[in-house]
Amino acid sequence: MNKDLLIEILSHREPELVKLFEDGTPKNIGSDTGNHIRSILTDEFLATGLEDPDGNNINNRGKAIEQLIDHIGNLIW
Fold it and tell me: How far is CA 47 from the centre of its chain?
């Protein structure tokens, strides 16, 4: 998991969630929080993760955000 990217995105979009990841990656998080973070990551993906306005090509940042979305999904209990 690219923790630095996650912290960057959360710091920009919802700073109060950064505290969940400051001491490492939590083993699990509640479904409401996890789904909220995934929603934030999806918004960031749509804003910065695509090469073109049609959404046909995912850039490297987009690929990294996709991995974060999957990883956060695996932490939901």
Answer: 12
Whether 2 and 60 have beta carbons less than 8 Å apart is answered as no
Backbone angles phi, psi at 8, to 5 degrees: -60, -50
pLDDT in tens, 9-52: 999 999 999 999 888 878 778 999 999 999 999 999 999 999 98
Return the amino acid letter for 14: E
| pLDDT tens per residue across span 61-72 | 999 999 999 999
Distance CA 12, CA 74 (A): 23
Cα angle for residues 33, 46, 71 (degrees, 5° grid): 40
The rounded distance, in Å, linking the Cα atoms of 35 and 40 is 9
- At residue 50, the 3 state secondary structure works out as strand
Dig out the tokens for 18 from the structure.
């950064």
